[in-house]
TrEMBL record:
Official protein name in the record: 4-methyl-5(Beta-hydroxyethyl)-thiazole monophosphate synthesis protein
Domain of life: Bacteria
Species this chain originates from: Lacticaseibacillus paracasei subsp. paracasei Lpp14
InterPro entries: Class_I_gatase-like
Record Gene3D superfamilies: 3.40.50.880
Length: 59
Protein backbone atom coordinates (compact mmCIF):
# COMPACT_ATOMS: atom_id res chain seq x y z
CA UNK A 1 0.00 0.00 0.00
CA UNK A 2 1.19 3.50 -0.83
CA UNK A 3 0.81 6.40 1.61
CA UNK A 4 0.07 9.99 0.62
CA UNK A 5 1.19 12.39 3.36
CA UNK A 6 -0.45 15.81 3.42
CA UNK A 7 1.68 18.34 5.32
CA UNK A 8 -0.71 20.60 7.21
CA UNK A 9 0.16 24.09 8.42
CA UNK A 10 -1.99 26.12 10.80
CA UNK A 11 -4.58 28.15 8.85
CA UNK A 12 -4.38 25.76 5.87
CA UNK A 13 -6.91 26.08 3.05
CA UNK A 14 -9.23 23.14 3.74
CA UNK A 15 -10.53 22.93 0.16
CA UNK A 16 -7.14 22.52 -1.55
CA UNK A 17 -6.30 18.96 -0.54
CA UNK A 18 -9.84 17.60 -0.50
CA UNK A 19 -10.04 16.82 -4.23
CA UNK A 20 -6.85 14.74 -4.29
CA UNK A 21 -7.52 13.11 -0.91
CA UNK A 22 -11.01 12.01 -1.94
CA UNK A 23 -9.70 10.40 -5.14
CA UNK A 24 -6.84 8.61 -3.38
CA UNK A 25 -9.09 7.42 -0.56
CA UNK A 26 -11.35 5.61 -3.06
CA UNK A 27 -8.48 3.29 -4.00
CA UNK A 28 -7.38 0.35 -1.85
CA UNK A 29 -3.82 1.02 -3.09
CA UNK A 30 -3.53 4.33 -1.19
CA UNK A 31 -3.66 5.43 2.42
CA UNK A 32 -4.11 9.16 3.13
CA UNK A 33 -2.39 10.56 6.25
CA UNK A 34 -1.58 14.00 7.64
CA UNK A 35 1.62 15.41 9.10
CA UNK A 36 2.56 18.67 10.80
CA UNK A 37 4.91 20.18 13.35
CA UNK A 38 1.84 20.75 15.59
CA UNK A 39 -0.40 18.05 17.08
CA UNK A 40 -3.58 19.86 15.97
CA UNK A 41 -4.02 22.50 13.25
CA UNK A 42 -6.91 24.77 12.26
CA UNK A 43 -8.11 25.46 8.73
CA UNK A 44 -9.22 28.79 7.28
CA UNK A 45 -12.77 27.39 7.40
CA UNK A 46 -12.52 26.63 11.13
CA UNK A 47 -11.97 22.86 11.00
CA UNK A 48 -9.75 21.43 13.76
CA UNK A 49 -7.55 18.63 12.36
CA UNK A 50 -5.79 16.10 14.57
CA UNK A 51 -2.56 15.11 12.81
CA UNK A 52 -1.53 11.48 12.14
CA UNK A 53 2.23 12.14 12.23
CA UNK A 54 3.86 14.93 14.22
CA UNK A 55 7.11 16.02 12.56
CA UNK A 56 10.06 17.21 14.64
CA UNK A 57 10.67 20.93 14.12
CA UNK A 58 14.40 20.82 14.95
CA UNK A 59 17.03 21.11 12.23
Amino acid sequence: MKTALFFMMDQYADWEGSYLASQLNQSKQWSVKTGSVAETVSSLGGFQTQIDYQIDNQL
